[in-house]
Design a protein that fits this description.
single chain, alpha/beta, Rossmann fold, Heat Shock Protein 90, 3 domains, 5-stranded parallel sheet, 5-stranded mixed sheet, 11 helices, about 50% helix, about 20% strand
């Protein structure tokens, strides 16, 4: 049996509606028809279709008693109106009118006097197929836009964020050479520490950059296994221990023997970035806590919380948007690329969860992942 075609007919003339029904019955279409006698009723029916399934085609009369057909057409084809495939039914075969309707967004038009079961079925199939083609084209266009934004982000990071630590290392190495020649041990130690910090920053950024870039290209299904959280958390804490120590930030762990079903390497990357981010935005004497607790539905809530500067709702909204990369200086002047949280967002999605954010400006931030328990 042919695929069911759901049709909405908007026409104030009962005789014309009956003619459409007759033509459909005599056609080879497998159809289902909803009717509306005016523009307002038609728009309401298009917005809330019977059964919840969208209409494959809308047959719209050119002359309606309550609304201008061009206004109804514009609302039907708009994304917020459902982006319907609309075919116009006209009472006259005026070429100029047909051209105007097509320019306004109608996919086809059919003069009522020329309507036969064959022409109506052919026109409906054409409108339905063309709408499917346009929808696919829009989807591919959106994917291309996303790819362009990703490319722009990568170039921005490579051209600016990745270059900065190398410039720092080059500058400090020159000063280091002078200090060695002058046997100024204090300056040698300070500059060597600065070079080490810049090298670590560059390494972390490159690691995140390559991980995120490869994540965009890898569509393979993620293989999961039981993972004990304690070792992953301890590794993340150890990696941030020096930065936290310099700022006097306490790192606390409260996860017990929690075990989850996940991809260990991906989760470790998320934890490393979230913990480093928490330390970055926590002032001296503050606290960062990594905790895991079982929820009522059996899932494990893994959170990284800090007592730092917090965020406004507007900042949270922009936080993980590719087109609005947020880079903020930490409480000790630490710089970042804004890539870490984008990476965490995408990794969380690959793990089948979402990165939830709860924050209040001036009071701190909590990032939470909800993961299935092991076994």
């Amino acid at each position: 049996m042919p695929t069911l075609t759901r049709i909405l007919l908007i026409d104030d003339d009962a005789v014309d509606r009956q003619a459409v029904r007759r033509a459909l019955k005599a056609s080879d279409l497998n159809w289902e028809l909803a009717e509306a006698a005016n523009g307002a009723a038609g728009l309401a029916a298009a917005a809330t279709p019977t059964g919840g399934a969208a209409f494959d085609c809308v047959l719209l009369d050119y002359r309606l008693p309550d609304m201008d057909a061009f206004d109804v057409l514009a609302r039907l084809i708009a994304p917020e109106g459902g982006g319907h495939a609309v075919m116009m039914l006209t009472g006259e075969s005026d070429p100029e009118t047909a051209v105007e309707l097509m320019r306004a967004g109608a996919l086809d038009h059919l003069a009522k006097a020329e309507m036969t079961p064959q022409t109506l079925a052919r026109a409906i199939r054409y409108a339905k197929a063309r709408r499917g083609f346009l929808a696919e084209l829009e989807e591919k266009s959106a994917a291309l836009d996303a790819l362009n934004r990703q490319q722009a982000l990568l170039l921005s990071i490579i051209g600016h964020d990745l270059r900065n630590p190398f410039q720092v290392m080059l500058g400090m190495s020159e000063v280091l050479s002078e200090a060695v020649a002058e046997k100024d041990h204090a300056r040698v130690e300070a500059r060597a520490r600065g070079i080490r910090d810049a090298a670590q920053q560059a390494h972390r950024l490159m690691d995140d950059l390559f991980t995120w870039a490869s994540l965009q290209m890898d569509s393979a299904e993620v293989a999961t296994a039981p993972v004990l959280l304690q070792p992953l958390i301890e590794s993340a804490v150890e990696g941030c221990g020096a930065a936290a120590g310099r700022k006097g930030v306490t790192l606390a762990v409260d996860c017990g023997d929690a075990e989850v079903e996940t991809h260990g390497t991906m989760l470790a990357t998320i934890l490393r970035n979230l913990t480093a981010n928490a330390v970055k935005f926590t002032p001296e004497g503050g606290r960062v806590t990594i905790a895991a607790r079982a929820e009522e539905d059996g899932r494990v809530a893994l959170s990284v919380a800090d007592t730092g500067v917090g965020m406004t709702p507007e900042t949270i909204d922009r936080l993980v948007r590719l087109e609005q990369r947020v880079t903020t200086v930490g409480t000790a002047g630490e710089k970042g690329s804004g890539l870490g949280l984008l990476l965490c967002r995408d990794l969380a999605a690959r793990l089948g969860t979402a990165l939830a954010v709860d924050s209040t400006a001036g009071e701190g931030t909590r990032f939470t992942l909800r993961l299935p328990p092991a076994g």
